[in-house]
Amino acid sequence: MTRLEKAGIGVELPGGWEGSISGGDFALLADGARQPTVMHLASFPLPAERGSFGSGAVELMGNLDVLIVLFEYGPDSVGTALFAQEGIPRNLLARQFDRNALQRPLPGQSGLQQFFTHKGRAFCLYVVLGSHVDRQDVIPQLNAVLDSLVID
Fold this sequence. Notes:
By secondary structure, this protein is mostly beta strands. Helix content is 9%, strand content 32%. The relative contact order is 0.20.
């Protein structure tokens, strides 16, 4: 296992997984915009260029692949109705995944999107599975990664 840590987020990656955490502390960009913290974890090689919610990566997924995105929203999102769920989503179930829950629908894939607040920080957990039909086969490994996720 490999430990990945940055911006108060830590996670254990199983063998064969890749990951990155970009941004952090809502650093100001040159144009004055704020750069959110974005974590990408994948059971397949991640391309260097990819969108915040995995565009550029989801097209490379095989049937038993998983992409996990953790996207942090600004402090103004904390306490809003969308982020009312408290705590990191864990123990995801196959029935929670839907072919219509994808940012960019691709044949066979399914996804899940959950908004939550943890320790005063607002996040979206977005997960893409390479195969809706085979989702039960990858849920245990997905949940093991989520069980290791720590947010300070």
